[in-house]
Inverse folding.
């Protein structure tokens, strides 16, 4: 299992568009991918799960991946976060 903590830098937080990008990125991998925020864990392959967390600016969250391609999944998600302007 691999995981990494991120901080949201986008003023709008993780809203629908970036959540959709994260979900579509996560679904490309076989590993289980989880988003953890304030003690709540959701499947990062579920748009409803991600949106239900309501993660805003300056809030921290963790992405955890567990499976055969876990490191590739985490790397791709980090790249999507940076390219989407959600984190540095």
């Amino acid at each position: 299992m691999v995981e990494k903590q991120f901080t949201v830098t986008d003023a709008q937080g993780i809203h629908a568009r970036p959540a959709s990008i994260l979900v579509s990125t996560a679904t490309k991998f076989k590993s289980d991918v989880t988003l953890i925020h304030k003690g709540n864990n959701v499947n990062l392959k579920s748009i409803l799960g991600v949106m239900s967390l309501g993660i805003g600016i300056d809030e921290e969250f963790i992405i955890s991946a567990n499976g055969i391609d876990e490191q590739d999944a985490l790397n791709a998600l980090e790249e999507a976060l940076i390219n989407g302007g959600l984190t540095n």
Summary: The chain is about 35% helix and 25% strand. Strands lie at 2-7, 32-37, 40-43, 60-66. The mean pLDDT is 95.
